[in-house]
Amino acid sequence: MYKNILVAIDGSNTSTLALREAINVAKEQSARLRLVHVIDMSPFTTADTGLIDDAKLEEVLFKAGQTIMDEAVSEAQKAGLEVETVLPQNLNHRIGTVIVDEANRWGADLIVIGTHGRRGIQHFVLGSVAEQVARAATHPVLLIPSRR
Question: Do 35 and 85 contact (CB within 8 A), yes or no?
Fold first, then answer.
């Protein structure tokens, strides 16, 4: 049923739960797995204060993303899966849009993403990447809740 499963990871416990569920589904379905971690530069592109070295910031964010990716790849490989990765850079879009665009570009037929379960003002201020993905995707999205 599913042949191409894209998993959004951000290093949180919830994204680890999403990765584990995606691994289970991929093994069950004999599917390919692709991990995506968005390098989000958007908060820094609107405030040109001259105080931030853009190249250094990009390097730090990329290294942090690569560390998150390496840990996730290791977990998928321990489960016996081949895994692909992508670290798209986001300059001015919502992260959910970047994830959906990557899923469409790759030909994913399932997106797996963790949801942090934010409510109230925290949800209003921080938004929900999982909600953005679920609203924008044109194919199934599997939402994995946090375990609070």
Answer: yes
SS3 for 129? helix
The string of DSSP letters for 13-65 reads: HHHHHHHHHHHHHHHHHT-EEEEE--EE-HHHHS---S-S-HHHHHHHHHHHH
One-letter amino acid identity for 106? W
Question: Model's pTM, two decimal places?
Answer: 0.85
DSSP state of 138: S
Measure the CA–CA gap between 48 and 104, rounded to whole angstroms.
32
Question: What pLDDT was estimated at residue 142?
Answer: 96
User: What span, in angstroms and rounded, lies between the C-alpha atoms of 53 and 25?
Assistant: 42
